[in-house]
Structures are given as structure tokens and as C-alpha cells.
């Protein structure tokens, strides 16, 4: 069995992080290499490797995480002007850690197309 991912270690408090939100299902912390003035990562406590590997049983968890984003963005002061929510999947999608995570980016004008 592979070891814990970086994000599991953060959730288990084995590695420090600047945590801004947590509940029984997920944890949100500041990205250590931010791509915007506000750059947070929301991760499930359950180790799901990537969105493409989520199962039907994960539907409630994924919905919970998506509904937490708005409240976290409001608390961080980026709701009024807008923010971006990103989920990377696999190497070509920009995934760096094999643990599902949602990026919340704000505090500046986002460009399109991304990447």
C-alpha cells in the first residue's frame, strides 16, 4: 500500500499548513506556491486520487466540498469581485499531488483561456 499523500499528512497534522477552514469531511489551506493573491486548496479527508477516480458513493462529499467554496471565498474577501475554482486531473491536467483537491483562486483578474 502506498504511503500517505502530502495532503493526507497535512490533514493528519503531520505537516504544518496555514489552515483556513476544516470540518469532518474536508480541509482548506493556503497554497505554498500561490498563483494568485488568494490561492487555497480544499481537500477531502478521504483520499480520492483524482476527480476521474471519484465513485458514485463520493457524490455527497464532492457536493459538500463545492458548497463550501462559496463560504470560504466570502470569508477570504474574494466573493464580490469573483474567483476561480479549478480541479486538475492527471499529468496533462496539471495535477501535482495525487489527492483530489480544489483550487480557489482570487484577488486578481483571471485570464482566459487558463494555462
What does it look like?
The chain is an alpha+beta fold and 115 residues long. The protein has one domain: HIT-like (HIT family, subunit A), CATH 3.30.428. Helix content is 21%, strand content 22%. It has 2 helices and 5 strands, in the order αβββαββ. The chain has helices at 6-11, 59-76; strands at 19-22, 26-30, 38-44, 83-86, 102-106. Strand 1 (19-22) and strand 2 form a beta hairpin.
Characteristic terms for this protein:
115 residues; alpha+beta; HIT family, subunit A; 21% helix; globular
The largest pleated sheet is described as: 5 strands, antiparallel
Number-wise, the strands total 5
Q: Provide the helix percentage.
A: 10-25%
Architecture per CATH nomenclature, i.e. the level-2 architecture: 2-Layer Sandwich
**Which stretches are low in confidence, meaning pLDDT under 50 for 5 or more residues running?**
none
Succession of helices and strands? HEEEHEE
**Secondary-structure content class:** alpha+beta
The number of helices is: 2
Q: Indicate the mean pLDDT.
A: 95
Share in β-strands: 15-25%
CATH H-tier superfamily: HIT-like
Output the CATH class name. Alpha Beta
Radius of gyration: 14 Å
CATH fold node name: HIT family, subunit A
Please report the distance between the alpha carbons of the first and last residues.
33 Å
Strand arrangement within the widest β-sheet reads 1-2-3-5-4
Instruction: Domain count, please report it.
Output: 1
How would you describe the shape?
A: globular
Amino acid at each position: 500500500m502506498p504511503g500517505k499523500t502530502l495532503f493526507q499528512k497535512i490533514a493528519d497534522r503531520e505537516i504544518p499548513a496555514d489552515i483556513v477552514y476544516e470540518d469532518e469531511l474536508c480541509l482548506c489551506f493556503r497554497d505554498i506556491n500561490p498563483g494568485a493573491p488568494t490561492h487555497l486548496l480544499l481537500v477531502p479527508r478521504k483520499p480520492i486520487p483524482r476527480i476521474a477516480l471519484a465513485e458514485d458513493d463520493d457524490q455527497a462529499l464532492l457536493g459538500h466540498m463545492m458548497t463550501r467554496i462559496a463560504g470560504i471565498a466570502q470569508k477570504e474577501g474574494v466573493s464580490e469581485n469573483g474567483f476561480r475554482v479549478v480541479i486538475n486531473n492527471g499529468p496533462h491536467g496539471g495535477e501535482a499531488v495525487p489527492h483530489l483537491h480544489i483550487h480557489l483562486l482570487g484577488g486578481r483578474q483571471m485570464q482566459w483561456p487558463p494555462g
